[in-house]
Amino acid sequence: MSCKNISSKNRSSVCHVEQTYWFSPLLPHLESRSTWHSRQAYKTHTHPQFSIGAIEQGGTRSHYRGQQHLLQAGDLILIDPHQPHSCNPLPGQTRSYHMLYLDTAWCLQQLSRLCGHPVTSLHSRGVVLQDPALFTRYQHLIAQLHQGDIAAAEKTLHHLITPILQQYCLPVEPAPYSSFPPEPTYHTTTRYVRQRLLSNLQTSPSLEALAAELNLRRETIVRQFRRETGVTPMAFLNNARVEYAKTLLRQGTPLADAGYQSGFCDQSHFHKTFVHYTAATPGQYRHSRSIFDNK
């Protein structure tokens, strides 16, 4: 993996961090990440999946739902799909943590099964969980994934996610049932900007072009978009490009092609943005794939 396109400060803090990703076609609804002794910070970002984090060592400060949450070793955190958040280390300290990213459609299917009726939206009531039994179960799942014991991991995953969904997730049941969560209700302007930005990641319109199309000032668009989504249009676009690049890398797409197809102007821009939103390089992410594919 190459770190030559990252600034010297980020190169020393990212490329030497011990971290692994896990994903497999045998469990297509699950991805995990494990990071040890990292001081690397994140930009505010979102994930399309339902995310569950676990702090193994140290502490982290999470900004989520307009509040600051302090997490210590042994804590779990629930993060809803598409919700802006950041989880950064405490000043001068390292932290070790795991993340589980669970496909939202799969979670809704599990929640519908538990509720006995269709559920089409997922909203967690809790944010920081202090539950030693769940934390231990989470650790067992991570160990089984890294050992390649898929059958045991699948069973542990169900034993972990079932009580979390039952105790901490609030079902919302608009009909008819869809396997995908409904898009939040946005103002016409925000909805239009989202659709235009996502319509083609390689040729997304500039803010100036959007302002002309909507006959609005750039500042008005940015202010309204941030108020409704929690991020600026450019941050939203970069986040979407990184998530699409991750999808391509999981499929084995070469780094240069993944960056180009995701809309990044060059490899330097791709590496820098990927690091800002994931605290890992594209090469580190793809390298983890090759490790677990060869087991």
Explain the overall architecture.
This protein is α+β, with helices and mostly antiparallel strands and 295 residues long. 46% of the residues lie in helices and 21% in strands. Strands 1, 2, 3, 4, 5, 6, 7 and 9 form an eight-stranded antiparallel beta sheet that branches. Strands 8-10 form a two-stranded antiparallel sheet. The longest helix has 19 residues, at 150-168. It is globular and about 55 Å long.
Q: Total helix count?
A: 11
Helix content: 40-55%
CATH topology of the largest domain: Jelly Rolls
Distance between the termini: 20 Å
Q: Determine the strand fraction and express it as a percent band.
A: 15-25%
What ranges have pLDDT less than 50 throughout 5 or more consecutive residues? 1-12, 173-183
CATH superfamily of the largest domain: Jelly Rolls
How much is the radius of gyration in Å?
19 Å
Could you say which overall geometry the principal axes of the C-alpha atoms support?
A: globular
List keywords for this structure.
295 residues, alpha+beta, Jelly Rolls, two-stranded antiparallel sheet, 11 helices, 10 strands, globular
Strand-helix topology:
Layout: H1 8-14, E1 18-23, E2 30-38, E3 50-64, E4 67-72, E5 76-79, E6 85-89, E7 95-102, H2 104-115, E8 121-124, E9 128-129, H3 132-147, H4 150-168, E10 169-172, H5 188-199, H6 207-214, H7 218-229, H8 233-250, H9 255-261, H10 267-278, H11 282-293
Antiparallel strand pairs: 1-2, 2-7, 3-4, 3-5, 3-6, 3-7, 5-9, 8-10
Helix pairs in contact: 2-4, 3-4, 5-8, 8-9, 8-11
Brief synopsis:
This protein has 2 domains: 18-172, Jelly Rolls (Sandwich); 188-293, Homeodomain-like (Arc Repressor Mutant, subunit A, Orthogonal Bundle), CATH 1.10.10.
